[in-house]
Amino acid sequence: MPPGLPPRAAATAPLPSYREDDASYAGSPGGLWDLSNNEISLPPLPRVREILRRESGQVHLYPDPRARFLVDALSTHFAVDRESILVGPGSAGVLQQLLLTLCGPGDDVLYATPGFDAYPLLIATSAARGIPVPLTAAGDHDLDRMRAGITANTRVVILCSPHNPTGKSLSPSELGEFLVGLPPGVITIIDQAYVEFDEAIDPQDLELLHRHADVVLLRTFSKAYGLAGLRVGYALAAPPVVARARKTAIPFSVTRGAEQTAIASLREGDALRHRTAHIREERERLFRLLSAAGHAPLPSRGNFLWIPLGPRSASFAEESARAGVKVRAFPGHGVRVTVGDENAHRLLLSVARGFGRADG
């Protein structure tokens, strides 16, 4: 490592870039169905295409650097002050702003593993030290172990609920008990990228935020709203945290098209409920079929299923790719499968049945 490397560069040097080993973006075999990215197979909500056509004639103009119309819409939607809303290019972009604000050299950030593989890199970018805490054997956050791992250096705890990749959710009572036991000044970021798929949670219920000043709720329009390609996310947090985090934003990072389609999507509540209900139905159907094929997927609250295959995970992903379906392997742990098209499910199930017979 070169001498005198700045702290943030030193922290990121040992890590690969995000999905560096993923060849799918460089050109996958023809006809490959992609069930690896937790995208939804349904088209965007009504009016999105119309707005994008309109905005295509404005690409020579910069967007509003503060995305103020979107902030206003979120403020109305959730009945919170504008000063409690932070927007950015997807929830990952918003998380980066938060970590740059909250952390620095010598600070620790706890998160569950396996988990969203951008967490370690985003933590390192802030020059903090990531502290991975293994999930329980059942695929849940080990909250006791997380609490025991908090030290004087801990600045942030990241909880993902529903959890990526297992689909497990933390109940309000579990979260409340955990939060009450934290030392003052430790910020808990609850990554709720998949919250709209969780039938037990009302996404507009912000009781945790109102009860706990050190909580941040992290959300995205990429998943349930189907705007993954436009990159727009947001966080709900205490105004002092938001005010500081806004200073770390890349200027103009939320495009005009992303802002306007996000606003329109917020207004399509009935359509959103219809699509999330459809995805939940397909998720439960796929769960039953995978179970019948000899596997044991975990019950999920996301738009995906987790098959805990342990050391066989990479082999299952390789066989799936050969059959024409890409899934996300977490080697040594399991395989995450996005709820997708019926044709993709059919191919996946043919692999699952054969894999179950071959490997017992």
Automatic annotation (TrEMBL):
- Mind telling me which Pfam families this protein's record contains? Aminotran_1_2 (PF00155)
- Key words of the record: Aminotransferase, Pyridoxal phosphate, Transferase
Named cofactor requirement(s): pyridoxal 5'-phosphate
Q: Which residues form the Aminotransferase class I/classII large domain?
A: 34-339
Q: Which region ranges are annotated with the description Disordered?
A: 1-23
GO molecular function terms listed in the Swiss-Prot or TrEMBL record: pyridoxal phosphate binding; transaminase activity
Q: Where is the composition biased (Low complexity)?
A: 7-16
PROSITE patterns referenced in this protein's UniProt entry, alphabetically: AA_TRANSFER_CLASS_2 (PS00599)
PANTHER family of this UniProt entry? HISTIDINOL-PHOSPHATE AMINOTRANSFERASE, HISTIDINOL-PHOSPHATE AMINOTRANSFERASE 2
Protein name from the UniProt record: Histidinol-phosphate aminotransferase
Species the sequence originates in: Streptomyces atratus
